[in-house]
Amino acid sequence: MHRQILHLDLNSYFASVEQALNPALRGKPIAVIGASHRTVITTASYEARAFGVKTGMSVYEGRRYCPDLILVVGNNRRYTHTSSEIMKMMGEYSDLLEPFSIDEAFMDVTGSCKLYGLAENIAMRLKARIKHRFNLTCSIGIAPNKLLAKLASDLKKPDGLVVVHPDEVSTLLERTPVSDMCGIGKKTERQLKLLGINTCGELGRFPVDVLRKKFGIIGDRLIQMGLGIDDSPVVPMAESDPVKSVGHSSTLDRDIEDRKDVLKYLLKLSEMVGRRARRYRVAGKTVHFYVRYADFFSSFGKQMTLSGYVNQSDEIYRAAVQLYDSAVHPQPVRMLGVRLTNLQHSSEQLPLFQEDRKKLFLTNAMDEVNDRFGEFAVTFGSLMEKGEDCQERRLEGSTVISPAWRPEGIRKVDVK
């Protein structure tokens, strides 16, 4: 029996959650945005998409396409909680469940079909339960592998269910544009079109030697994609490959150029990276720094490999500051990012020197308080600013859910 791989994609997820909770928004063009005044559209409802509103547009652009567009500030905690609950629901049908993003997941239901019959039965049960409990719709694709299941779920939106049988693969790919295949981005699509390749069928028949010369070892993978071949397994989170980095980035509420203001944000990001690293008992040897400037297009990135492994926030911060100071910054700063790589599991052995032990105990105490009462319940004094009303407030930047977000493990990022 061939594999039965199911891909579930929640339709217009953030916008649909808002419409499900607020009946006044149903059937209307809405766009979910961030809390910052310089936000972009993170998701548009299908009613808004009909006017041409797309993810990534500025609010100005969105309203130019749709003057009646309703803006809704997103609730990230609500989205992550709902996603986690839906993943739990999917896990009732198979333990071979692989979250792909906050609103997508793969599931191998080959073995589950012995209990539930056809894979379509599982899909229909999931669609009905998600609709009943959350009032959300999803599109589901079922195919012999992950590549084709992802393609199938995109064929009928919203609220679709598409099954691709093995004997239908070649016919489907013959008419499928290469841009519809997951893993082929715009740059690769343009290069393929220059070779006269527009559909997956054409890609599968193209001479592999030419693709190897053009794309290197990726050429072989492109041929397989054109033929609909994908042997990759559905990997549950507990068995997934070790995470290779821990990072955070933040688009600032306003462009800044004063060094002391930049350093405050770097400290906040370093604390967020350190917190996650310590929580999952990893330490890293390489610190990465990234900055995007006010014109949005200009950027700078650099990394530093340290002499030892670190996960203390102040050590990550010092490296990030050195990286920032190593360059001349031609414009005010719009976005900052800090990342820790070259990871290994950290030792729980107490430091040799008393000062280092005191710092470790203090850090552990701060982590325990923040685990109980929320991120930055206890924080560094320099991350507090005086507002116009002389009340202290925490330094804020935008909080965006990473595409790598997972409902558990080191990739789970606490959001507001």
What can you see in these coordinates?
The protein is an alpha+beta fold and 416 residues long. It has three domains: 1-164, Alpha-Beta Plaits (2-Layer Sandwich), CATH 3.30.70.270; 170-227, 5' to 3' exonuclease, C-terminal subdomain (DNA polymerase, domain 1), CATH 1.10.150.20; 241-394, DNA polymerase, Y-family, little finger domain (Dna Ligase, domain 1, 2-Layer Sandwich). The chain has 15 helices and 14 strands. It has helices at 13-21, 46-49, 59-65, 76-91, 113-116, 119-134, 146-155, 169-174, 186-194, 200-205, 208-215, 218-227, 259-279, 313-325, 354-373, and strands at residues 5-10, 30-33, 41-44, 70-73, 97-101, 104-108, 138-143, 161-163, 245-256, 282-293, 299-310, 333-345, 384-386, 392-394. The strands form four sheets. A five-stranded mixed beta sheet has the order 5-6-1-7-8. β5 and β6 form a beta hairpin. The longest helix is centred in the middle third of the chain and has 21 residues, at 259-279. The protein starts with a strand and ends in a 22-residue tail after the last strand. The model is unreliable at 387-394 (pLDDT under 50).
